[in-house]
């Protein structure tokens, strides 16, 4: 514990040091904080002087954390998070929809839904400082449980304890295949059994869409093609258009992914149509849970107004 007359680290010093610890590069850290590199370096040096210890090992080619720097980085992150929480709580007590809100979104939703949501957030909730983090389901669920994210946009149900789930919309999966495929000769809905005779290309591990597609295949005894996987939905579409197989495509992705002169054809399935439910989830214990429930209503309205090819829940 510091004596009363000893100087203590400032938030600016902690923020500067943590940026360098994250990037291990002074210029990149300065850019991330929108400050000059000399000012950043000065703040880090002042922190080292205050703590009477070296936090960084500097060479002409790289920056490394010392053992003390590793420990200080952990504490600095905790302090800054606590201060952010304090500011958020105070802002919330004064006015709802005010202060930081960290949203996590899965990659198979973000490009197709965020264009409808971000203008709405800016227009209806101008005091809400929204940040967006795109990552796979497992990552954003862990981060919302740990408090690093406030709410997440993903496929439901999550089966995660301690979260409130707000369904937003349901959407169908369409069968996507090359435009010269024999299936392109028809236009009516397909029986799911057609999957048994097709090579099905999937996203790689960690995408919930991959698991949903596998479940659809498993129901009819079909198998996925193990040799070819994609890291993103746009890549998956290109693989299919290039003749490497077929895939299941969420209908919300169709306007974006098929509007680029891609040699792709689509067919619907007969009822019951395979698909998924997308929704918002947030911690039940959050002090802002009532606000997030209202945000879910606003999101439904934005999706409905944008006329995305989905069925908005009531």
Descriptors for this entry?
about 325 residues, alpha/beta, Arc Repressor Mutant, subunit A, D-Maltodextrin-Binding Protein, domain 2, eight-stranded mixed sheet, two-stranded antiparallel ribbon, transcription, transcription regulation
**C-alpha-based Rg, rounded:** 24 Å
Question: Which second-level CATH architecture of the largest domain applies?
Answer: 3-Layer(aba) Sandwich
Count of individual beta strands: 12
> Percent range for helical residues?
40-55%
Number of DSSP helical runs: 10
CATH topology of the largest domain: D-Maltodextrin-Binding Protein, domain 2
Q: What is the CATH class name of the largest domain?
A: Alpha Beta
Total domain count: 2
Cα separation of the termini: 55 Å
InterPro entries: LysR_HTH_N, LysR_subst-bd, WH-like_DNA-bd_sf, WH_DNA-bd_sf
Keywords: Activator, DNA-binding, Transcription, Transcription regulation
Family: Belongs to the LysR transcriptional regulatory family.
Organism: Streptosporangium minutum
What does the model show?
Belongs to the LysR transcriptional regulatory family. Pfam families: HTH_1, LysR_substrate. InterPro entries: LysR_HTH_N, LysR_subst-bd, WH-like_DNA-bd_sf, WH_DNA-bd_sf. GO terms for molecular function: DNA binding; DNA-binding transcription factor activity. This is Probable hydrogen peroxide-inducible genes activator. This protein is an alpha/beta fold and 314 residues long. It has two domains: 77 residues, Winged helix-like DNA-binding domain superfamily/Winged helix DNA-binding domain (Arc Repressor Mutant, subunit A, Orthogonal Bundle), CATH 1.10.10; 215 residues, D-Maltodextrin-Binding Protein, domain 2. The strands form three sheets. Strands 3, 4, 5, 6, 9, 10, 11 and 12 form an eight-stranded mixed beta sheet that branches. A two-stranded antiparallel sheet has the order 1-2. The protein has a two-stranded parallel sheet with strand order 7-8. It starts with 10 loop residues before the first helix and ends with a strand.
